[in-house]
């Protein structure tokens, strides 16, 4: 299903990842239980098969082993917990699940308010300089392919 993306990942120099560090299914289930929803299928595929990546000075958020989840700033749930602790953030972004915060003037997040028939959340790009949010990709797989294409 994700053959094209897997091929792209083999040949790109824009994205750096560390093989053998995929998330275990029970880690994903624990995160989903706390979040209260299932993560998108293409993101789950990424987590299990690759699990981590660096691009343009930032980490694409992953799921860390439970014993590291309370302090690892590359963990999806850790960042989400920090965001949820801020009342202003919750009121402004009730359906935002951060995904990628590069060293630049934008950040990318799942919009958990809507899900397509395959269970995918759209990925939004938040332009911090102009305070504008636009859809960047309709799936995590599309998001990753687009990032690789733009930054290769």
TrEMBL record:
Pfam families: SMI1_KNR4
Domain of life: Bacteria
InterPro entries from the UniProt entry: Knr4/Smi1-like_dom (IPR018958), Knr4/Smi1-like_sf (IPR037883)
The protein's name: SMI1/KNR4 family protein
Coiled-coil regions listed in the entry: none
Species annotation: Cohnella boryungensis
Domain Knr4/Smi1-like: 22-146
